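#structure-requests
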Amino acid sequence: MKLLATKPLEWIQQEVEAKHTLRRTLGPWNLVALGIGAIIGAGLFSLTGIAAAEYAGPAISISFILAAIGCAFAAFCYSEFATMIPIAGSAYTYAYATMGELLAWIIGWDLVLEYAVGAATVAISWSAYIVSFLHDLGIELPAAIIASPWQPVQLPSGELVHGAINLPAVLIIVVISLILMIGIRESATVNALVVLIKVGVVLTFIGVGVWYIRPENYVPFIPQNTGEFGHFGWSGVLRAAGVIFFAYIGFDAVSTAAQETRDPQRHMPIGIIGSLAICTLLYVAFSIVMTGLAHYTEFKDVAAPVAVAISYTPFKWLQPLIKIAIVAGFTSVILVMLLGQSRVFFSMANDGLLPKLFSEIHPRYRTPWRSNLVLMIGVGAMAAFMPITLVGSMTSIGTLFAFVIVCTGVLIMRKTNPNAPRPFRTPLVPFVPLCGIATNLLLMYGLGESNWIRLIGWLAIGLVIYFSYSRKHSRLQRALMTQATARDY
């Protein structure tokens, strides 16, 4: 068996044109909303203050621009592949077409870290904010149902307790999974409404806060370096860019909706690059207002830095709105992550690498409903019982690894299939893909040894599954064996 055999582009084109598959209903603005839904979570409200206080000062706005440029390298590469190969599998399918089945399996298994484990991580955080929000309304939930047994949670009263199950996290996973089963149009509508809420709150903060900016808070705009690399000065701006890079992660999930897009060749680049550009504008404006309202030193060791900034305005009603925006942000992130994971599993099952149930389409709703059902149970269990410190640390390195594979794939495809139609072309090849590879490898290196060990362990489990099940059921491997047998005769 050829472990590095690639999936022919002809096969992929047949899948694109096949009937009785996923329903194509999404337009460009649906895709932009999916991207914004995946990108803007709580990172904007927490990482901005932390990175300003510890690394960049008011120049955190420059850090957001640098981080966006780093993401853009990968976004251009995703856009090229999404228009060439408009299939639901995202990085998995791109790797299959360029680097072979074994690496495609590895990246498909790796994407579980970004999407399924990422959804569980966000659901745990969603639960914490819901508990806090209900506390503000005078509603106290029993400690037994708001936390994992293996990770204590601090109640709004300050008490540290152990629970039996994180029930709110399970409930949000169940609700979103049911929405995803009902249909992609309904899922996109719910996501658009949630995105409107959180973007509306961000714009309200910017629009209100800009009138109370104190210019002296911007002096010096780039604080003098302390003598240690990464603590203010230009090195601090760079360090902050690395920290806030993770506030941008999620735009790649747009590519998993390629098979449900009306005109993927035109609309996918708009969704991927457009959502990244809009979020960058929001991030830069938000950071400028936030560091203009309060001096960056006031954000140090503060759990809710946005609250400090809001205290310099007379509009205290912004406080609960920020919590609503964070809950809305988490909700849309969970939706897009679960959507992305089910579509990757759908493609892998179509190729025979996973059981057929993951590719079964509901006769009425035209969604991979069994895949969503399995994910609801699996991700729900993770959110219910696993500590966030474990699941959260595995998500970032898995995402960056996917970025590296996609950027590498563009270079390979340009060599192996130079004349293949490319409705969108990554600019400045090989410069842009190489910059994407270097940037993401550097960020992976910075995540530390423990995360690398977890990644290697996770991939080792995946290889056991591949060699014990997937290789034997692979459509490609069976076709190659049939061809080899025919040649022998």
